[in-house]
Amino acid sequence: MINSVDTNILLDILIxxxxxxxxxxxxxxxIDSNDELIISEAVFAELGSQFLSFNDLNKFLRxxxxxxxxxxxxxxxxxSRAWKKYSERKKIRLSVLFAVINRLCHALPAKRSFLFVNxx
Length: 120
Prior knowledge:
Elements: E1 2-5, H1 7-14, H2 21-29, E2 36-39, H3 41-48, H4 54-64, E3 66-68, H5 73-89, H6 94-107, E4 112-115
Parallel strand pairs: 1-2, 1-4, 2-3
Helix pairs in contact: 1-2, 5-6
């Protein structure tokens, strides 16, 4: 199975003393060793804020087996439809819009699960 990992799962583990570290570790420990871990462009950018260099970030991704997978136009459009349906029912800050669409478009393709804890 392919698992799309959100930034907060990884930051909970990388940043000392986060309140969700145990929950995030449980999420990751439940993944089968044969499963693939992927991140989106937005997660890559957010995760990069915790590393001193591009090389350090890439080393972390290689060492953990996490792969950056780029979004395609079909998944972006499908995410926009899901967002439209959701936003018609909920009032949500505009700043959350981009983050949610990015995560939706990355998790939507078949056979992808989406790992997150307390997103926004």
